[in-house]
Amino acid sequence: MGRQVNEREIVLAVLMEITENGAYSHKILGEVLSKYQYLEKKERAFITRVTEGTLEHLIEIDYILDQFSKVKVKKMKPVIREILRMSVYQILYMERVPDSAVCNEAVKLAKKRKFQGLSGFVNGVLRTVSREKENLSWKDASIRYSIPQWMLSMWEEMFGKETAETIAASFLEERPLTVRFNESIAPAAETVEELRAQNITVDLSDVFPGIASIRGFDYLDRVTTFAEGKITVQDPSSSLAARMASIKPGDFVLDVCSAPGGKAMHAADLLRGTGMVEARDVSERKTDLIEENIMRCGFPNIRTMVWDATFLDPSMIGQADVVLADLPCSGLGIIGKKPDIKERMTKDEIVKLAGLQREILSVVSQYVKTGGTLVYSTCTITKEENAENADWIEKNLPFEKKEIRDLLPEALKASCEENRIQLLPGVHPCDGFFISAFRRK
Q: For strand 302-306 and strand 177-181, is the pairing parallel, antiparallel, or unpaired?
Protein backbone atom coordinates (compact mmCIF):
# COMPACT_ATOMS: atom_id res chain seq x y z
CA MET A 1 0.00 0.00 0.00
CA GLY A 2 2.80 2.43 0.93
CA ARG A 3 4.28 2.51 -2.55
CA GLN A 4 1.57 4.53 -4.31
CA VAL A 5 2.38 7.43 -2.00
CA ASN A 6 5.46 9.44 -2.83
CA GLU A 7 6.78 11.08 0.35
CA ARG A 8 8.24 14.00 -1.59
CA GLU A 9 4.85 14.78 -3.12
CA ILE A 10 3.39 14.90 0.38
CA VAL A 11 6.17 17.24 1.55
CA LEU A 12 5.57 19.51 -1.45
CA ALA A 13 1.82 19.66 -0.77
CA VAL A 14 2.40 20.44 2.93
CA LEU A 15 4.98 23.17 2.20
CA MET A 16 2.63 24.77 -0.35
CA GLU A 17 -0.14 24.85 2.27
CA ILE A 18 2.18 26.51 4.80
CA THR A 19 4.12 29.00 2.69
CA GLU A 20 1.51 29.88 0.07
CA ASN A 21 -1.77 29.44 1.98
CA GLY A 22 -0.67 30.38 5.49
CA ALA A 23 -1.49 27.05 7.18
CA TYR A 24 0.20 26.46 10.56
CA SER A 25 3.09 24.01 10.19
CA HIS A 26 2.50 21.96 13.35
CA LYS A 27 -1.23 21.62 12.65
CA ILE A 28 -1.04 20.56 9.03
CA LEU A 29 1.90 18.24 9.64
CA GLY A 30 -0.03 16.56 12.46
CA GLU A 31 -3.06 16.08 10.20
CA VAL A 32 -1.00 14.70 7.35
CA LEU A 33 0.91 12.25 9.57
CA SER A 34 -2.29 10.90 11.06
CA LYS A 35 -3.79 10.53 7.57
CA TYR A 36 -0.72 8.52 6.46
CA GLN A 37 -0.35 6.51 9.68
CA TYR A 38 -0.12 3.35 7.60
CA LEU A 39 3.19 4.43 6.04
CA GLU A 40 6.39 2.94 7.42
CA LYS A 41 7.84 4.86 10.36
CA LYS A 42 10.86 5.65 8.17
CA GLU A 43 8.67 7.27 5.51
CA ARG A 44 6.76 9.34 8.06
CA ALA A 45 10.06 10.44 9.61
CA PHE A 46 11.28 11.58 6.17
CA ILE A 47 8.13 13.68 5.63
CA THR A 48 8.50 15.31 9.05
CA ARG A 49 12.22 15.94 8.73
CA VAL A 50 12.13 17.50 5.25
CA THR A 51 9.08 19.66 5.98
CA GLU A 52 10.37 20.94 9.33
CA GLY A 53 13.96 21.21 8.14
CA THR A 54 13.02 23.26 5.08
CA LEU A 55 11.01 25.68 7.21
CA GLU A 56 13.71 25.91 9.88
CA HIS A 57 16.44 26.72 7.35
CA LEU A 58 14.27 28.81 5.00
CA ILE A 59 16.21 32.08 5.22
CA GLU A 60 19.49 30.28 4.55
CA ILE A 61 18.00 28.17 1.72
CA ASP A 62 16.54 31.22 -0.05
CA TYR A 63 19.88 33.04 0.28
CA ILE A 64 21.65 30.08 -1.36
CA LEU A 65 19.06 29.79 -4.14
CA ASP A 66 19.37 33.50 -4.89
CA GLN A 67 23.10 33.02 -5.37
CA PHE A 68 22.82 30.17 -7.86
CA SER A 69 19.59 30.87 -9.73
CA LYS A 70 19.06 33.48 -12.46
CA VAL A 71 15.45 33.77 -11.30
CA LYS A 72 15.28 35.07 -7.73
CA VAL A 73 13.26 33.06 -5.19
CA LYS A 74 10.54 35.73 -4.88
CA LYS A 75 9.94 35.63 -8.65
CA MET A 76 9.72 31.83 -9.01
CA LYS A 77 6.49 29.95 -9.61
CA PRO A 78 5.29 28.74 -6.17
CA VAL A 79 5.50 25.00 -7.01
CA ILE A 80 9.03 25.36 -8.40
CA ARG A 81 10.06 27.49 -5.42
CA GLU A 82 8.95 24.80 -2.94
CA ILE A 83 10.50 21.96 -4.95
CA LEU A 84 13.83 23.80 -4.96
CA ARG A 85 13.64 24.73 -1.27
CA MET A 86 12.93 21.18 -0.07
CA SER A 87 15.61 19.81 -2.40
CA VAL A 88 18.28 22.24 -1.21
CA TYR A 89 17.46 21.20 2.37
CA GLN A 90 18.05 17.54 1.46
CA ILE A 91 21.31 18.35 -0.35
CA LEU A 92 22.68 20.36 2.59
CA TYR A 93 21.37 18.42 5.58
CA MET A 94 20.51 14.84 4.68
CA GLU A 95 23.71 12.88 4.21
CA ARG A 96 21.85 9.62 3.63
CA VAL A 97 20.11 10.85 0.49
CA PRO A 98 22.50 11.05 -2.49
CA ASP A 99 22.44 14.45 -4.20
CA SER A 100 21.82 12.82 -7.58
CA ALA A 101 18.66 11.20 -6.22
CA VAL A 102 17.49 14.55 -4.84
CA CYS A 103 17.99 16.18 -8.27
CA ASN A 104 16.20 13.37 -10.13
CA GLU A 105 13.25 13.33 -7.74
CA ALA A 106 12.92 17.12 -8.00
CA VAL A 107 12.84 16.94 -11.80
CA LYS A 108 10.19 14.18 -11.62
CA LEU A 109 8.10 16.30 -9.26
CA ALA A 110 8.32 19.34 -11.55
CA LYS A 111 7.18 17.25 -14.53
CA LYS A 112 4.40 15.63 -12.53
CA ARG A 113 3.13 19.10 -11.58
CA LYS A 114 3.07 19.96 -15.34
CA PHE A 115 6.22 22.09 -15.36
CA GLN A 116 8.13 20.04 -17.97
CA GLY A 117 9.48 23.28 -19.40
CA LEU A 118 11.17 24.15 -16.11
CA SER A 119 12.64 20.72 -15.33
CA GLY A 120 15.99 21.73 -16.89
CA PHE A 121 16.07 24.86 -14.73
CA VAL A 122 15.36 22.82 -11.57
CA ASN A 123 18.05 20.31 -12.49
CA GLY A 124 20.62 23.01 -13.27
CA VAL A 125 20.12 24.99 -10.06
CA LEU A 126 20.24 21.88 -7.84
CA ARG A 127 23.33 20.45 -9.50
CA THR A 128 25.09 23.78 -8.97
CA VAL A 129 24.12 23.83 -5.30
CA SER A 130 25.33 20.25 -4.94
CA ARG A 131 28.67 21.12 -6.58
CA GLU A 132 29.19 24.30 -4.56
CA LYS A 133 27.89 23.16 -1.16
CA GLU A 134 31.39 22.81 0.35
CA ASN A 135 32.22 26.43 -0.54
CA LEU A 136 29.16 28.12 0.88
CA SER A 137 29.57 31.10 3.18
CA TRP A 138 26.98 33.22 4.97
CA LYS A 139 27.17 36.95 5.00
CA ASP A 140 25.85 37.21 8.58
CA ALA A 141 24.46 35.33 11.59
CA SER A 142 20.87 35.97 10.50
CA ILE A 143 21.43 33.84 7.38
CA ARG A 144 23.63 31.31 9.09
CA TYR A 145 20.98 30.55 11.73
CA SER A 146 17.99 31.35 9.49
CA ILE A 147 16.57 33.89 11.88
CA PRO A 148 15.10 37.28 10.86
CA GLN A 149 17.61 40.08 11.43
CA TRP A 150 15.22 42.18 13.55
CA MET A 151 14.72 39.26 15.96
CA LEU A 152 18.44 38.64 16.29
CA SER A 153 19.11 42.36 16.86
CA MET A 154 16.40 42.49 19.53
CA TRP A 155 17.99 39.59 21.43
CA GLU A 156 21.49 41.07 21.01
CA GLU A 157 20.18 44.21 22.66
CA MET A 158 18.58 42.19 25.49
CA PHE A 159 21.28 39.57 26.16
CA GLY A 160 24.40 40.37 24.09
CA LYS A 161 25.61 38.92 20.80
CA GLU A 162 26.78 35.55 22.08
CA THR A 163 23.54 34.63 23.88
CA ALA A 164 21.44 35.89 20.96
CA GLU A 165 23.30 33.53 18.61
CA THR A 166 23.02 30.66 21.13
CA ILE A 167 19.24 31.12 21.15
CA ALA A 168 19.07 31.23 17.33
CA ALA A 169 21.31 28.16 16.95
CA SER A 170 19.23 26.17 19.46
CA PHE A 171 16.15 26.43 17.23
CA LEU A 172 17.94 24.36 14.59
CA GLU A 173 18.78 21.50 16.93
CA GLU A 174 16.69 18.37 17.11
CA ARG A 175 14.24 18.39 20.00
CA PRO A 176 13.29 15.25 21.89
CA LEU A 177 9.66 14.81 22.93
CA THR A 178 9.34 15.75 26.61
CA VAL A 179 6.67 14.42 28.95
CA ARG A 180 5.60 15.10 32.52
CA PHE A 181 4.65 12.24 34.83
CA ASN A 182 1.15 12.42 36.28
CA GLU A 183 2.18 11.36 39.76
CA SER A 184 -1.36 11.27 41.14
CA ILE A 185 -2.15 8.51 38.62
CA ALA A 186 1.04 6.46 38.98
CA PRO A 187 4.44 7.00 40.65
CA ALA A 188 7.05 8.27 38.18
CA ALA A 189 9.47 5.39 38.88
CA GLU A 190 6.79 2.86 37.99
CA THR A 191 5.90 4.73 34.77
CA VAL A 192 9.58 4.87 33.76
CA GLU A 193 9.85 1.08 34.20
CA GLU A 194 6.70 0.58 32.16
CA LEU A 195 8.00 2.74 29.29
CA ARG A 196 11.37 0.98 29.29
CA ALA A 197 9.60 -2.38 29.22
CA GLN A 198 8.08 -1.19 25.90
CA ASN A 199 11.64 -0.54 24.62
CA ILE A 200 11.19 3.22 24.84
CA THR A 201 14.28 5.22 25.80
CA VAL A 202 13.57 7.45 28.80
CA ASP A 203 15.99 10.21 29.84
CA LEU A 204 15.01 11.85 33.12
CA SER A 205 15.69 15.59 33.25
CA ASP A 206 18.45 16.49 35.67
CA VAL A 207 17.05 20.03 35.99
CA PHE A 208 13.26 19.73 35.97
CA PRO A 209 11.56 17.44 38.48
CA GLY A 210 9.00 15.01 37.05
CA ILE A 211 10.07 15.57 33.44
CA ALA A 212 11.69 13.16 30.96
CA SER A 213 12.40 13.01 27.25
CA ILE A 214 11.32 9.87 25.43
CA ARG A 215 12.21 8.37 22.09
CA GLY A 216 12.07 5.07 20.23
CA PHE A 217 8.28 4.76 19.94
CA ASP A 218 6.38 4.74 16.67
CA TYR A 219 3.16 6.62 17.36
CA LEU A 220 2.52 8.25 20.74
CA ASP A 221 -1.21 7.38 20.77
CA ARG A 222 -0.25 3.72 20.64
CA VAL A 223 1.98 3.91 23.73
CA THR A 224 -0.17 2.39 26.50
CA THR A 225 1.43 4.51 29.24
CA PHE A 226 0.30 7.63 27.35
CA ALA A 227 -3.16 6.21 26.58
CA GLU A 228 -3.62 5.50 30.29
CA GLY A 229 -2.83 9.10 31.22
CA LYS A 230 0.33 8.36 33.19
CA ILE A 231 2.25 10.89 31.10
CA THR A 232 1.31 14.21 29.48
CA VAL A 233 3.29 15.87 26.70
CA GLN A 234 4.67 19.11 28.11
CA ASP A 235 7.81 21.19 27.69
CA PRO A 236 9.91 21.42 30.88
CA SER A 237 9.58 25.21 30.87
CA SER A 238 5.80 25.20 30.93
CA SER A 239 5.80 22.58 33.71
CA LEU A 240 7.26 25.29 35.97
CA ALA A 241 4.22 27.56 35.60
CA ALA A 242 1.92 25.48 37.82
CA ARG A 243 4.78 24.85 40.28
CA MET A 244 5.28 28.59 40.75
CA ALA A 245 1.66 28.89 41.92
CA SER A 246 2.27 26.90 45.17
CA ILE A 247 -1.01 25.04 44.67
CA LYS A 248 -2.35 23.56 47.96
CA PRO A 249 -4.82 20.68 48.46
CA GLY A 250 -8.40 21.88 48.04
CA ASP A 251 -7.51 24.98 45.97
CA PHE A 252 -9.72 26.28 43.19
CA VAL A 253 -7.46 26.95 40.19
CA LEU A 254 -8.63 28.88 37.13
CA ASP A 255 -6.61 28.47 33.91
CA VAL A 256 -7.88 31.25 31.64
CA CYS A 257 -6.29 30.44 28.23
CA SER A 258 -5.83 26.77 28.75
CA ALA A 259 -5.77 24.74 25.49
CA PRO A 260 -4.40 22.15 24.97
CA GLY A 261 -4.42 21.94 28.76
CA GLY A 262 -0.89 21.00 29.84
CA LYS A 263 -0.83 23.42 32.78
CA ALA A 264 -4.41 22.61 33.83
CA MET A 265 -3.55 18.87 33.86
CA HIS A 266 -0.48 19.68 35.93
CA ALA A 267 -2.55 21.71 38.40
CA ALA A 268 -5.08 18.85 38.70
CA ASP A 269 -2.19 16.44 39.27
CA LEU A 270 -0.67 18.67 41.99
CA LEU A 271 -4.07 18.81 43.74
CA ARG A 272 -3.95 15.00 44.08
CA GLY A 273 -7.68 14.52 43.54
CA THR A 274 -8.77 17.44 45.78
CA GLY A 275 -10.04 20.91 44.82
CA MET A 276 -11.01 21.87 41.29
CA VAL A 277 -9.36 23.21 38.15
CA GLU A 278 -11.47 25.11 35.64
CA ALA A 279 -9.82 25.21 32.22
CA ARG A 280 -11.21 27.90 29.93
CA ASP A 281 -10.55 28.83 26.34
CA VAL A 282 -12.10 30.93 23.64
CA SER A 283 -13.71 28.26 21.42
CA GLU A 284 -15.18 24.80 21.56
CA ARG A 285 -12.43 23.57 19.24
CA LYS A 286 -9.93 24.56 21.93
CA THR A 287 -11.85 23.18 24.91
CA ASP A 288 -12.26 19.90 22.97
CA LEU A 289 -8.47 19.56 23.00
CA ILE A 290 -8.52 19.93 26.80
CA GLU A 291 -11.42 17.44 27.10
CA GLU A 292 -9.37 14.89 25.17
CA ASN A 293 -6.58 15.22 27.73
CA ILE A 294 -9.01 15.04 30.67
CA MET A 295 -10.59 11.85 29.33
CA ARG A 296 -7.22 10.27 28.76
CA CYS A 297 -5.91 11.13 32.22
CA GLY A 298 -9.22 10.56 33.98
CA PHE A 299 -8.77 13.47 36.40
CA PRO A 300 -11.97 13.91 38.46
CA ASN A 301 -11.08 17.46 39.58
CA ILE A 302 -10.99 19.37 36.30
CA ARG A 303 -13.69 20.84 34.07
CA THR A 304 -13.73 23.00 30.96
CA MET A 305 -15.65 26.06 29.89
CA VAL A 306 -15.78 28.07 26.67
CA TRP A 307 -15.07 31.69 27.66
CA ASP A 308 -13.31 34.60 25.99
CA ALA A 309 -10.74 35.84 28.51
CA THR A 310 -11.16 39.47 27.41
CA PHE A 311 -14.71 39.49 28.80
CA LEU A 312 -15.34 39.75 32.54
CA ASP A 313 -17.25 36.88 34.16
CA PRO A 314 -18.94 38.57 37.18
CA SER A 315 -19.70 35.21 38.84
CA MET A 316 -15.94 34.47 39.06
CA ILE A 317 -14.78 37.69 40.80
CA GLY A 318 -12.68 36.90 43.89
CA GLN A 319 -13.33 33.15 43.59
CA ALA A 320 -9.95 31.64 42.62
CA ASP A 321 -7.06 30.69 44.90
CA VAL A 322 -4.86 30.58 41.82
CA VAL A 323 -5.25 32.09 38.34
CA LEU A 324 -2.94 30.73 35.66
CA ALA A 325 -2.66 33.31 32.87
CA ASP A 326 -0.49 31.80 30.14
CA LEU A 327 -1.58 34.27 27.51
CA PRO A 328 -1.52 34.45 23.69
CA CYS A 329 1.93 35.74 22.75
CA SER A 330 4.39 36.05 19.87
CA GLY A 331 5.73 32.53 20.55
CA LEU A 332 9.39 33.37 19.89
CA GLY A 333 10.45 30.86 22.55
CA ILE A 334 9.00 27.92 20.62
CA ILE A 335 10.36 28.64 17.12
CA GLY A 336 12.14 25.28 17.41
CA LYS A 337 8.70 23.62 17.39
CA LYS A 338 6.87 26.08 15.13
CA PRO A 339 9.40 27.46 12.64
CA ASP A 340 6.80 29.38 10.62
CA ILE A 341 6.61 31.90 13.51
CA LYS A 342 9.79 33.39 11.99
CA GLU A 343 7.86 34.30 8.84
CA ARG A 344 4.67 35.47 10.54
CA MET A 345 5.79 37.56 13.48
CA THR A 346 6.63 41.28 13.29
CA LYS A 347 7.65 44.02 15.72
CA ASP A 348 4.22 45.66 15.35
CA GLU A 349 2.46 42.41 16.13
CA ILE A 350 4.50 42.07 19.36
CA VAL A 351 3.37 45.51 20.53
CA LYS A 352 -0.25 44.58 19.71
CA LEU A 353 0.02 41.31 21.63
CA ALA A 354 1.50 43.08 24.66
CA GLY A 355 -1.60 45.32 24.64
CA LEU A 356 -3.93 42.32 24.39
CA GLN A 357 -2.12 40.66 27.31
CA ARG A 358 -2.71 43.75 29.48
CA GLU A 359 -6.35 43.82 28.46
CA ILE A 360 -6.77 40.16 29.53
CA LEU A 361 -4.76 40.66 32.75
CA SER A 362 -6.99 43.60 33.78
CA VAL A 363 -9.97 41.24 33.54
CA VAL A 364 -8.68 37.90 34.87
CA SER A 365 -6.76 39.42 37.80
CA GLN A 366 -10.18 40.23 39.31
CA TYR A 367 -10.84 36.50 39.75
CA VAL A 368 -8.01 36.10 42.30
CA LYS A 369 -9.02 36.01 46.00
CA THR A 370 -7.28 38.32 48.49
CA GLY A 371 -3.96 36.58 49.29
CA GLY A 372 -4.37 34.37 46.20
CA THR A 373 -1.82 33.88 43.43
CA LEU A 374 -1.67 35.14 39.85
CA VAL A 375 0.88 33.45 37.57
CA TYR A 376 1.51 35.34 34.33
CA SER A 377 3.50 33.43 31.72
CA THR A 378 4.29 33.42 27.99
CA CYS A 379 6.29 31.22 25.63
CA THR A 380 8.20 34.16 24.19
CA ILE A 381 11.37 36.24 24.55
CA THR A 382 10.52 39.95 24.26
CA LYS A 383 10.68 42.84 26.74
CA GLU A 384 7.24 44.19 25.84
CA GLU A 385 5.36 40.96 26.57
CA ASN A 386 7.45 39.79 29.53
CA ALA A 387 9.41 42.09 31.86
CA GLU A 388 7.42 45.22 30.92
CA ASN A 389 4.08 43.48 31.46
CA ALA A 390 5.23 42.03 34.79
CA ASP A 391 6.17 45.57 35.89
CA TRP A 392 2.82 46.82 34.62
CA ILE A 393 0.88 44.28 36.74
CA GLU A 394 2.62 45.50 39.88
CA LYS A 395 2.06 49.18 39.08
CA ASN A 396 -1.53 48.99 37.86
CA LEU A 397 -3.22 46.05 39.56
CA PRO A 398 -3.65 45.29 43.29
CA PHE A 399 -0.81 42.76 43.37
CA GLU A 400 2.64 42.46 44.93
CA LYS A 401 5.57 40.30 43.87
CA LYS A 402 5.49 36.69 45.02
CA GLU A 403 9.00 35.29 45.53
CA ILE A 404 9.58 32.16 43.43
CA ARG A 405 13.30 31.45 43.88
CA ASP A 406 12.73 28.72 46.49
CA LEU A 407 10.18 27.00 44.26
CA LEU A 408 12.63 26.72 41.35
CA PRO A 409 14.93 23.77 40.62
CA GLU A 410 18.45 24.41 41.96
CA ALA A 411 20.00 24.86 38.49
CA LEU A 412 17.60 27.69 37.60
CA LYS A 413 17.80 29.77 40.78
CA ALA A 414 20.59 31.95 39.41
CA SER A 415 18.39 32.99 36.45
CA CYS A 416 15.57 34.15 38.73
CA GLU A 417 14.86 37.79 39.60
CA GLU A 418 12.59 37.98 42.67
CA ASN A 419 9.22 36.98 41.21
CA ARG A 420 10.17 36.19 37.62
CA ILE A 421 12.34 34.06 35.39
CA GLN A 422 13.11 34.22 31.66
CA LEU A 423 14.14 30.82 30.31
CA LEU A 424 16.19 30.83 27.11
CA PRO A 425 16.52 27.92 24.66
CA GLY A 426 20.16 26.92 24.24
CA VAL A 427 20.98 28.50 27.62
CA HIS A 428 18.45 26.43 29.61
CA PRO A 429 17.45 22.88 28.56
CA CYS A 430 13.93 23.86 27.46
CA ASP A 431 11.85 26.20 25.28
CA GLY A 432 12.01 29.96 25.67
CA PHE A 433 9.52 30.82 28.40
CA PHE A 434 8.72 33.62 30.86
CA ILE A 435 7.04 33.12 34.24
CA SER A 436 6.12 35.71 36.86
CA ALA A 437 4.10 35.30 40.07
CA PHE A 438 2.07 37.78 42.13
CA ARG A 439 0.05 37.79 45.36
CA ARG A 440 -3.21 39.70 45.57
CA LYS A 441 -3.04 42.39 48.26
A: unpaired
